[in-house]
């Protein structure tokens, strides 16, 4: 039953049990407090759980809320005040004060000192399904546009992602290229043109932001006049204070466009230079949108449950229905053949509206959709053709008899051919016509699909996945393996886990079960042992690799009560069977997660863990704590500043008094701090950083000079010694960095992004400007044998070689052996060192030699 339970959890949601508080809108209201909102909603959830059976819809609702809470927790200040979602973008100089893109832009994060290139390391296409019937895909898309060409293999396609920008294909979806990485993290709600002809594409318009999940606000409407290669702001832009949303678009011609905002329907007739308010909503937070057009008739809905209609291409509007305070949008479409509009309310009830009738009115059609779940307004889509109605929510549900009977036709929980419908990833955001017959497109939380029905009555359509190569996966976590730099595991929002390992004789990405993959780990002594966490403390382990074993070998019993939605898992750096879990407190397992012991740190619910050897540092709801004896005793880390709470911490494993921490929020100049007394007092080391969100700081261990890396909401920075912070490398997309790992055996930094997949870059010290001299020739230490098979490693120093300090460490930097080397042959006993790949770093002042060894 475990698998069914997790599959239920993998869907998104909205808080059906917390209708008294619209938490998504609350962040934009003056005086709203994050901590008060979170406590109120969580109390309502707890009451619902204790009073009645928690339904599937409630589980999804809780998940959607916890995603929202996770998004905001690092952004709010110490008092719980909400900033603008676009604060960091403006502070970094990527957008102007009015929300327009800051020209001239050339590329993403770029450093004049660090010239190494970031490389995407995948997956570039959907991972092997691995026996997982409802397998994860590449990630959430919000819209689709196609330009037709002869031959069809040269059709030009566009898709937009809420955190991954715009992607373009010039070969009918065979390959894809990103086109908006400069502001990829701002997201795309819609992309449209008045044309569908690839030979005459016209002007392309883009509505920005994340209209469905409402995690980031809009910077307005962009346009492209070179077939989607470059984009510029139009006259519709928004300042930070506006906190605006823009809806899907109606593009009538190259100069005439309609879009909805929080209060207005806006129209331009001069290509976006100026915009006129053609409809003013009585409420300032109406989030007008879900437009659909047939000829000169246009209908749209708003988040208050109202509907507006125009019969003159959006020049004038009439409110045709108001349902009061429903906090839900309708889904709207029109039958291309008849021009009749179809509207679906949050209850699942379909109504029709015929503009040609003598007295047009909404008319109820059939029965409410069976099992309809739009999760508030997170996923609401509708398409109608020749009497075939397809309603998109969590699943797609269709009817061929005017809503009399409904059938699940795209099933996110599909198991086999006996299941209802065909497999389609959960959470459908938009649908539309494709080709002749009953052929449609749909975008969902897994990507873009083409859906074809042989006949109107067919309930199992053919599903063709089209967005292989659209790299928009939203990572929470990544882990690495020492056996090869290519072995990795990712935990993803909405799309479970991807594990890179050998399958059928080939190294490939394979699917692994999680729901939301919140944390990951690989045993550095045995890479077949892998861990994948799901939301709220759930955890599975495989002892034989996930290949051909997508749901692992063991469903571990963890202390899930009170665990954060996105929780953290760390492995002891020298004893791989020991794990630390961030639950309602920090817990320790010495048997690969089979049993757990509360370490009683006093930190409360855990948000972050860092560990080397027996030194353990944690951050929780009650602040930071440290233990220098593996959790036996704890002391408090002082907050770096009274106005800023820590959100990540790291330390020097050879001197645990040297500690580094990032702080949350947008306080200019207060980003990263250093302590030399174990966290008692701090020095601000933020020089060179813009006022953007900090996510994680890590120290490159075992170096002669201090080398730090920093994941932010806009790429990665690095710092050497007393230098200022600088952007790291070339051409990393501007998206959130949720996790950083150093692979010490190949000297690479691995970055897990939220919206653009997994990336890596060389961090060889010479490329970072570190002042070191490599021992070469006769004075270079000689290491033999390599591989080591008899338990003895020899390191020979020439008479001209200075005495050296050495450190032997594993893939994650954990020290397994250290000491001094003298002239002549030095025999090191490695019989107690596990098999694997290690680094031996030998130093004397600025003179160094770093060599890789294999112990068998």
TrEMBL record:
Keywords: Signal. This is T9SS type A sorting domain-containing protein. Gene3D superfamilies: YVTN repeat-like/Quinoprotein amine dehydrogenase. The keyword Disulfide bond does not apply. NCBIfam families: Por_Secre_tail (TIGR04183). Residues 1-18 form the signal peptide. Transmembrane segments: none annotated. The keyword Nucleus does not apply. PANTHER family: EXO-ALPHA-SIALIDASE, XYLOGLUCANASE (EUROFUNG). Residues 783-855 form the Secretion system C-terminal sorting domain.
